[in-house]
Amino acid sequence: MRSTHTSLLFIMVAASVAAISCSKSNSNSTAPRPEPGTLEMRLALLNSAAELQAREHGLLLDTIGELKTSVAGFQTEPDTARQAWSAVAMATQRLEMMQVGPAALPNEALGGQGLRDEIYSWPLVNPCRIDQELVKNDFTAVNALAVNARGVDALEYVLYAASDDNACAPNLAINTDGSWAALTSEDIAERRAAYATALVADLETRATTLQSTWEDGFRTELTDPQNGEVYGSTREAINALSNAMFYLDTTVKDLKLAVPAGISGCAENTCPASRESKFANITLVVIRANLEAFDAMYHGGDRGDEAAIGFDDLLISIDASELHNDMVTAIDGAYTALDAAGGNMFAALESDPESVVAVHTAIRAITDLMKTQFLSVLDLDLPQRAEGDND
Amino acid sequence: MLTPRNIWQRLVERAAAPVDASSLAVFRMIFGIIGFIGCVRFLAYDWVNRFYVAPQFHFKYFGFEWVEPLSPVAMHGAFVVLAILSLMVAAGFLYRPAIIAFFLLFTYVELIDVTMYLNHYYLVSLLAFWMCFLPLNRKWSIDALIWPDIRSEVTPALHLWVVRFQVACVYFFAGIAKFGSDWLLDAQPMSLWMSSRVEAPIIGAYLGEWWVALGMSWAGFLFDTTIVAWLLWPKTRKYAYAAVLAFHGLTGYFFAIGLFPLIMVGCATIFFDPSWPRFGRKFELPKVSFDSRRLRLGVAGFVLLASVLFAMPWRHLAYPGDVLWTEEGMRWSWKVMIREKNGAVTYRVKVPTRDRELQVTPCDYLTADQEREFSGQPDMILQLGHHIGRDYAAKHGSAEVYVDALVSMNGRKPRLLIDPNVNLMSISDGIAPAKWITDAPVDAPFRPRIVQR
Known about the structure:
heterodimer; A: 391 residues; mainly alpha; A middle domain of Talin 1; 15 helices; globular; B: 453 residues; alpha+beta; two-stranded antiparallel sheet; 17 helices
């Protein structure tokens, strides 16, 4: 129990440090501030968002580099590898909120190439599928596997699997033909380590692809939308940022919180088995990382960074300061609710499920504002609303 | 002395007077061509799937709950048939059966889902309805080539009146709908819309300024309320039509309003001199009268139906509150693009098997297009509430459904649109004023800062 708390504390501190260092580095205080209500203001917002995203890509690659080193010694020093994985997970969770262009699914966003799923495919992850690969014991073609058997979520299962049991149903082949039962504890540990090594290598390739796709073209599409091929206007490009921030609504609120807390989509009073990152047991910590990324997207970087232009600046520039204050109050309310619930959702659901419901309520306060006055005042649309007629 | 009998007699005389059939023949062609473009556009953009096949739930019109979509193949087939019928109308080939079939099929398609309600689709339905009674194939048509007996250079004035009335309604009531403080004093929602379009060429730099939006709001109001008069008056017609082109060109450029600009630019020609398609070639009207029992019936029918259609847009006055908030009397009223509403709707469901209220998000049942449309419209929120209630009652024995429907209108702070303490399963939709809809906000809408240059 103590080690769980220690690692949670480490992850939370690491995540906060990463968030702050990332945001601060976005600063460029020499740039002149654009006039309110102008095209320059909108382009500055897009530039800040692009800068933020580029740095998050860099952070992800840095953490993967650390993981690559530490996963080699997984069998002897599993905690080191797990801590390195946690740093990767935090970087990934921040990027979850930034699915603009290539990271997003093609049918969900302009310029989408589905690269996010190649890195992290929750909730598609399939532990049984991973155990089947362990039985095969051939990790030379991990890149050809389906997304539910690789990526950050597959790594979590491999690194945190607590026993020698597998996750497949008893009627599946690895259990009926005795192939899993034939493995010794050492076999399983060795294969998990080998699979983890292969998964990290694949992850590095995928993250590099995301970064290069972004830097070699898409970044310009976002920062100069009028002259690009993806967005026709700054309105569409800014809408793409807003759409990405709706991850807080559709995934964080409706999937990560509502289902385990028994608010919706759960047949019991609570459904802790449906929580994210259940093997590492850091569900609420990753939700905090999502919220921090939302905060950064909203502010264009760190809250105190004067040079970073975000939605806050856009709102203040058109005299919607009251809405901005409401947004900040709602975001702060969500941080407070998360602090109250702690980092361990499983424990919170056991001892005080209402604390998780309170997090859901606090997140809903943000998304309700987003869906209503935020969209109205900035003349934005809900996500996934492709062009249609109106009158 | 003006007696009802005299008025009727004069009306019939004027309605029976001959007018050149040319402009109505051109109107028929324009209608058919735009109908064809519209159908092909729906098929090309895969909108048949998106709007009619993909949704698992369809919002029904009050009184038309029995209308159901066809199978995916048949829905696509319906649009192919509509495209063919449009071409037949344009060419005047088997015109009468074609326009009747077009009216029935088009109206059926429009009645499938309230999400698809658009004023210009309503206009197409109404025009098609009137055209079922108008012999617009007497000139410049394949029918007139095949059956020379039906050929005619002239037509009763009544036929022109019918189309002019319908098109005039759109402009007039769209203008009247703008007569409100949000539009005329606060320039909303125009200011919200314009502030995000600052990269438009030439004028873009000024679109973020509130006074520009105010000017555009007033221009829109004056244009809509007076343009028909300017188009009818020969001295101003040329300039008025230039204004029509500019107005619809700009709205088409700025907003995703599909074929609406094209439809109105085409329809506005009906206010020209009926001989305009002859481009100055002399044409003398024969001295005939179309007065007949059939025409008199037509005049009576027109007066009756026109009265109903003219009264429809005023019906919101019979309901308490602001129609833009309550939406009671909003549809079928030519209230074209006059409010910006965005909503966040969460249903709360109480079932006997659970201690805690369950929360249901609309996206579990709706497509993104449906969610965007329904979130500010109380009757649609009620309809989905009933559907969710039935769904949960089937699984849990019974269900009470409440809703938190937060709505921001014209940039105001969001507030509840529906009483959150009312069990939606205990109320039903109807034409009586809905007591479960909250009072409209009385504060001014959002007003952006005036940019200092």
